[in-house]
Write a structure and sequence with these properties.
The chain is α/β, with parallel strands linked by helices and about 325 residues long. It has 15 helices and 6 strands. The strands form 2 sheets. It has a 4-stranded mixed sheet. A two-stranded parallel sheet has the order 1-3. It is elongated, with a radius of gyration of 30 Å.
């Protein structure tokens, strides 16, 4: 069924938006069939290009020949097909209504500008991408359109640090997959972030394999990565991994708890003792809110001291 009225019309709002981005465009009437649906569905910032509730709302609005929609925004491919920048839901609506032709703004711009327009169109239409979708869009701008991390983060509304961590972890996941390592995605996010800081591929492979196999704690991984990155060459970086592997082997042979449990306890204890050594006792006593609080602190300190004495006496 073909509708008896023009379902699209020029939009001053869309034109103001395009003019603000200094892009060249022209208004055309094109066959709906000339739109590349598959490419259009992928050329947007959300996981799902079509929002069924919105399509149904558009269909209801069109009953009685009442609704007129803004012209779609597209770019033209070398093959003469059109890819949607803005209007996936409207195009789906038109298709279901049997519309054969519609007005479109055909934009001519560099690929990175087209990507920016697509991300902006999602927000203009009230369908702000989720955080995960924004992260993926930012990564695509960095890898495919050569944006800097700062530029990409600004375009998708994320902090530079958040996008940087996501990009590094995803790139590390790709490196792990290419190396035949399975299980990287199952690691804790903090562990993946630390491993992603290893630039040398041989050390990255060895460290990732050891982390997965030995179930290293984040503290162990963090120390290992620090030692790897401090090493001068690939041989020394691999030696840093081997040192951790040897420590794990000795732990297992001495019948210490397998997995990360025993080692985690060791690292937690070491961290706690290091923190204790840094405490300014006088400042703490001065800051106590009352005499009762100060006495409670002294009692806790006495118990810690007695506990540590037992441990040091065992080595005497």
């Amino acid at each position: 069924m073909q509708l008896s009225f023009e379902i699209t019309q020029p939009s001053s709002d869309v034109e103001r938006w395009l003019n603000s981005r200094f892009v060249t465009y022209e208004l055309r009437k094109i066959p709906l069939s000339s739109i590349d649906i598959q490419a259009s569905r992928h050329n947007q910032a959300r996981h799902e290009a079509i929002t069924e509730a919105r399509v149904q709302r558009f269909i209801r609005a069109s009953r009685g020949d009442a609704a007129v929609f803004p012209a779609l925004v597209v770019y033209e491919t070398p093959s003469g097909r059109y890819v949607l920048i803005d209007g996936n839901n409207r195009q789906e609506t038109f298709s279901r209504l049997g519309v054969e032709e519609c007005l479109v703004y055909v934009v001519r711009a560099h690929a990175d500008v087209l990507a920016t327009l697509t991300a902006e169109a999602n927000e203009r239409n009230g369908d702000r991408p989720t955080r995960d979708e924004s992260l993926q869009s930012g990564k695509r701008l960095v890898e495919q359109h050569h944006y800097t991390l700062k530029e990409a983060a600004q375009h998708v509304g994320l902090s530079h640090s958040d996008l940087g961590r996501y990009v590094r972890v995803e790139q590390a996941a790709s490196r792990a997959y290419a190396a035949g390592i399975r299980g990287f995605h199952n690691l804790a996010e903090s562990t993946k972030q630390r491993l992603s800081a290893i630039d040398a591929d041989p050390a990255f492979r060895a460290a990732t394999q050891l982390t997965i196999r030995a179930k290293l704690s984040i503290a162990e991984v963090s120390e290992m990565v620090t030692n790897i990155n401090a090493a001068r060459d690939d041989q020394m970086k691999l030696a840093a991994v081997a040192a951790v592997a040897e420590r794990v082997r000795r732990d297992n042979e001495s019948q210490k708890p397998r997995g990360s449990g025993g080692r985690n306890a060791w690292w937690r204890a070491k961290g706690a003792l290091t923190t204790l050594l840094k405490l300014d006792i006088t400042a703490i006593e001065t800051a106590a809110p009352s005499d009762a609080a100060r006495k409670e602190f002294h009692e806790l300190a006495r118990r810690v001291s007695a506990h540590l004495k037992v441990a040091t006496d065992a080595d005497a």
